[in-house]
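User: Okay, second chain of the day. Same drill as before: sequence in, structure tokens out.
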Amino acid sequence: MNKIYEASKDVHANYLVYLNSTDSKLYADAEFTKVLDADEAVRAFKANELVVATGEDAFAKAIAWTGAGFIIATVSESTPALALVTLAAE
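Assistant: Same drill. Structure tokens below.
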């Protein structure tokens, strides 16, 4: 097992990203205009710091990452679900 150490820049940091439900893509801002940096998003995921805003007062956690995108866990009307979301391209 490999250890993953936090760097001082990682301590107590979380990254909030925004899911656009019309295109299932993640953005850096709530207006869906700023594209996420893919390397930074993956780094935040690996440090368990990636939080996804899925709507007003609704949040999800990214639980897996593949080359195709992130798998997020959501709950709607008390029903859990998984969804594949991708990063918005420039």
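Residues 27 and 35 are 5 Å apart (CA to CA).

User: Thanks, on to the next one.
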